[in-house]
Every structure is written in C-alpha cells, then in structure tokens.
C-alpha cells in the first residue's frame, strides 16, 4: 500500500489518479501514527515552504515522515514535497538561516537568481521542460537520458551533485531531481506529465 501524506497543501486528486492509472493502490493519510504502516510514501505539496512546514509540524506529521524515511522504505517528494526534504528554504525566511525543512537531504532551497539567467525568462518557471538524467536510478528506468516533464515553481534545490539524479536548464542549470538512498525527490509534477510522468510513478511503485 502506498500512502500519500495529506496535510492540507494542494489538491491531491491528480496524484491519486496517476497511481490509479498505473494500477497501484494509493490512499491519502492524515494520521501521523499510521504512516509507517505503508510500504511506500508520497510527500506532495503546492504552495509556500513555511506554510507547509507549519502544517506538517502542527500534528507531528514532520516527525512521522522522518521516521518513515529512517525505516528504509521508499519516500518520494513531489514539487514542494521535494523541497521540504532539504534542510532549509529561503522562501519568506525570517533570517539568513532560512526556514527549517525536514533535513532528509543535505542542501537548501533558493529562489531563481534572475541575474544569472543566460537569456530572459519569467519566474515562476512554468510549463514543459527537459530533465537531464545525471546518474542511474530505478526511478527513471525505461526513460531516455533526457525527457520532458511539467514544472511550476519559483524556488529550486541547491545541493551536492552526489544527490542530484536530474538537472534542468531554465536561465541556468539547476537540480530538478534528487536521491539519498531510499529518499527521492522530483521538482516537476509527474502526475501532470503524461506518459513520462506516469512511467516515473510506475517505477516508484516497483522500488
């Protein structure tokens, strides 16, 4: 059984539908005490980093997600859910240390630096773009070394290349997919990315 963390951050219907399309049994879970009953876990999210962390912390869901990650079972963060896996984010941060994240992957989340763009682009980064695979990972089995997915975000991860399994170019190259052992994260929305996205979701069900 695959659990989808329900913490009031985004419409989760499309995530559930995507798992249904690949023949997987997934359900929403809002009870932190039940997370470790699942075989695999999805941490979705749409919105602001700080708000998301407050929602997770309000009932202990943050510690439950950490406990699941430490169990060794597969965990996948999607979009904001991927960003929450990191140590901190600059989004609406009150000081230079940023807003604390789950700390499951070393690194931080930063705003797109438009001063570094190699050609004019609008932020947020919205629409179809290529993900360039950086290392072998079961999450991308059966996909080309570069493929298109659907993005919507204004902040991106910054981490050591050893955690980067995918990168994307938008003004400059940034990390768009990560892995730290059993912990995975992907910035684009696989549930909105047609065949390529469904393949990633199917691959996750097989981990």
UniProtKB/TrEMBL annotation:
The keyword Nucleotide-binding does not apply. Gene3D superfamilies: 3.40.50.880. Its EC number is 4.3.2.10, 3.5.1.2. PROSITE patterns: GATASE_COBBQ (PS51274), GATASE_TYPE_1 (PS51273). One of its GO terms (cellular component) is cytoplasm. It comes from the Bacteria. It catalyses: 5-[(5-phospho-1-deoxy-D-ribulos-1-ylimino)methylamino]-1-(5-phospho-beta-D-ribosyl)imidazole-4-carboxamide + L-glutamine = D-erythro-1-(imidazol-4-yl)glycerol 3-phosphate + 5-amino-1-(5-phospho-beta-D-ribosyl)imidazole-4-carboxamide + L-glutamate + H(+); L-glutamine + H2O = L-glutamate + NH4(+). Keywords: Amino-acid biosynthesis, Cytoplasm, Glutamine amidotransferase, Glycosyltransferase, Histidine biosynthesis, Hydrolase, Lyase, Transferase. It is found in: Cytoplasm. Residues 5-204 form the Glutamine amidotransferase domain. Pfam families: GATase (PF00117). GO terms for biological process: L-histidine biosynthetic process. The active site is at 79 (nucleophile), 189, 191. The keyword Cytoplasm applies. Its main location: cytoplasm. One of its GO terms (molecular function) is glutaminase activity. Pathway: Amino-acid biosynthesis; L-histidine biosynthesis; L-histidine from 5-phospho-alpha-D-ribose 1-diphosphate: step 5/9. Heterodimer of HisH and HisF. HAMAP family: HisH (MF_00278). This is Imidazole glycerol phosphate synthase subunit HisH.
């Amino acid at each position: 059984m695959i659990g989808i963390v329900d913490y009031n951050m985004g419409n989760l219907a499309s995530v559930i539908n995507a798992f249904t399309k690949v023949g997987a049994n997934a359900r929403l879970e809002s009870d932190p005490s039940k997370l470790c009953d699942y075989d695999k876990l999805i941490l979705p999210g749409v919105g602001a980093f700080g708000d998301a962390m407050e929602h997770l912390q309000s009932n202990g869901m943050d510690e439950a997600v950490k406990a699941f990650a430490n169990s060794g079972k597969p965990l996948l963060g999607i979009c904001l859910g991927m960003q929450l896996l990191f140590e901190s984010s600059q989004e609406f941060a009150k000081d230079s240390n940023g807003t604390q994240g789950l700390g499951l992957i070393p690194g931080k989340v930063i705003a797109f630096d438009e001063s570094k763009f190699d050609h004019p682009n609008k932020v947020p980064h919205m629409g179809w773009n290529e993900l360039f695979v950086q290392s072998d990972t079961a999450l991308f089995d059966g996909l080309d070394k570069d493929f298109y997915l659907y993005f919507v975000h204004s902040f991106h991860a910054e981490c050591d290349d050893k955690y980067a399994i995918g990168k994307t170019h938008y003004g400059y190259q940034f990390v768009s997919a990560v892995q730290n052992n059993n912990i995975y994260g992907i910035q684009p929305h696989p549930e909105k990315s047609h065949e390529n996205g469904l393949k990633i979701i199917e691959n996750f069900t097989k981990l």
